[in-house]
Every structure is written in C-alpha cells, then in structure tokens.
Recover the amino acids of this structure.
C-alpha cells in the first residue's frame, strides 16, 4: 500500500490531498446526515427502492475499471466545488421547506459531489463521468414516477406471462394485472414487483455498458433495451411463481418470490452478453478498441 500511494503521488495524488478529500467527504456526509439516513432507510425497507443498495458497489467498480485514468488526471483544487456545495445546500433547504423529498435527497448528493470537486477538480470528474452520473441513482424515485413506470410494466408482464403459461398447457385468465390459475387469483404486482426489477436491471445494464469498451451507440442501445430485459426477467421469475401460487401453498410461493428476485440479475447479465454477441455475429461494429487498449486507457 505505501508503494501504491507513492506511485499515485507522482501524479498529484498525495497523502495530504487524499486526507483533505476524506475530511471534506465526512463533513459533507455529516451535513446531509438526515438525508443520507433517510435514503438508506428507504432502500432497506422499501423493496421498490432496494436497487439503491447496489449503487455503492457498482460506483466503486466503475472507478476501479478506470483506475488508470488517475495517472492522466492530476487533481486540482477547484472553486466549482464550493459552488456545487452551495447549490446542493440550497436545493436541500428549499426542498425541505416545500416538502419535496426527492429534491431534499438530491441536495445531499450534490454536496457530496461538491466536496469531491473541490479537491480533485472538474477534469477528474469528467474522466470518471459514468461513475459521477451513477450517483443520480442514489436518489429514491418519487412515487408518481414509479407508478407511471410500474403500470405499463406490470401490464406487459402479465400479458406475456399468460401467453407463456398457455403455451406450457396451463389454462389462465387475465384481468388487467390479475391472473387466474387453478381458480386462484395472483396479482402480478404482488407476485413479482416490476419496479424492483426494472431499476435493478437498469443498474446492471449501466454497469455492463460502461465496463465493456463498447461503442457509445451500442451502450445507448443496451440502456434502451434494459426495460425489455426487465420484462423478460420478470416473466422468467413470474411464470414459476404463478404456478406455485396456483398449485402450491402460499408460504412456498412467497419463499420462491423472495429468493428469485436477485437471481434475475445474473440472467440479465447473460441477456446483455447475448445482445452484444448477436451484434458481433451480425457484423455490427460493437467495440471501441481492443482489450489491450482498454487495459491501458480504461473502459
């Protein structure tokens, strides 16, 4: 570790600067402690916001795969940092007074980014733009937006699941998001929470797109297709779940429902790999440069 720090210091990342960065981050987190506590309480208790728990490890991963960029990004103190901190504080203050929870949370995230910008400068943040942009996912999605997305997603999932079950030989009726199988009603939003899956899969898609050295057009395609991947994964999860609710006891179905959610994330990753392989098979330019270039430049 001392050798690594010594090597980093040659590029301007001295112990003193790192210590200052740590102190400012602690102060920023302390100033917005109420917001951060609320964010992670919501993430822990609300399944539809549980994707927030994935953001910190993915954030660290995106920085790690681009670690070589630290060498060409000498940190510089920047006055833009205090400006961002001020904007964050003002956003939190105004949002608190008008009871706008998303703005209150956003203020805390901006203060954290402002603390980083103060010490490292804007160029470093630009070189790690995918990680910086990911911090927006730390803000819990407002209920109105979640309902706007959840309705069409659940309806589409219910339609496709019915088709799959009927193709398997089961008699199923559908009324909106409600499926009737073996004279038992199964609500799609209860059996398989579409919102929980869609945001988690968007995160997986985002991490995949900015880990592999893909062309920007391919990255955009993957992000656009992530809701479709969410529906596919939901159907994979919902089909056996509905069968369990229809032909087994509720406790077994609940157990499967709880455990199968996170298992869909590896499936989503395989789907994304399949998309990129299909593009290569179709001779569509997919990668920006070779793996060796990636290792020397960062994804």
């Amino acid at each position: 570790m001392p050798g690594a720090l010594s090597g980093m210091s040659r590029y301007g990342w001295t112990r003193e600067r790192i210590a200052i960065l740590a102190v400012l981050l602690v102060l920023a987190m302390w100033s917005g402690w109420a917001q951060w506590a609320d964010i992670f309480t919501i993430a822990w208790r609300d399944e539809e916001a549980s994707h927030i728990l994935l953001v910190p490890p993915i954030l660290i991963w995106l920085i790690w795969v681009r670690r070589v960029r630290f060498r060409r990004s000498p940190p510089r103190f920047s006055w833009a940092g205090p400006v961002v901190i001020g904007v964050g504080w003002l956003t939190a203050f105004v949002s608190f007074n008008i009871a706008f929870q998303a703005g209150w949370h956003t203020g805390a995230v901006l203060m954290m980014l402002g603390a980083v910008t103060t010490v490292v400068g804007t160029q470093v943040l630009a070189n790690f733009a995918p990680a910086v942009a990911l911090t927006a996912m730390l803000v819990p999605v407002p209920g109105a937006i979640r309902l706007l997305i959840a309705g069409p997603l659940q309806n589409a999932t219910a339609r496709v699941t019915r088709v799959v079950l009927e193709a398997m030989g089961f008699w199923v009726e559908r009324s909106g998001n409600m499926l009737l199988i073996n004279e038992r009603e199964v609500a799609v939003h209860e059996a398989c929470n579409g919102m929980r899956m869609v945001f988690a899969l968007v995160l997986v898609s985002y991490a995949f797109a900015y880990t592999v050295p893909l062309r920007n057009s391919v990255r955009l395609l993957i992000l656009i297709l992530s809701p479709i991947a969410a529906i596919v994964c939901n159907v994979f999860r919902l089909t056996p779940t509905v069968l369990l609710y229809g032909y087994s006891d509720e406790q077994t179905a609940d157990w499967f429902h709880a455990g199968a959610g996170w298992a869909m994330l590896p499936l989503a990753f395989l789907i994304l790999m399949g998309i990129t392989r299909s593009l290569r098979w179709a001779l569509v330019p997919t990668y920006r440069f070779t793996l060796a270039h990636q290792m020397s430049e960062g994804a």
About this structure: Residues 144-297 form one domain. The chain has two domains: 2-140, 144-297. Residues 76 and 121 are 5 Å apart (CA to CA). The chain has 14 helices and three strands.
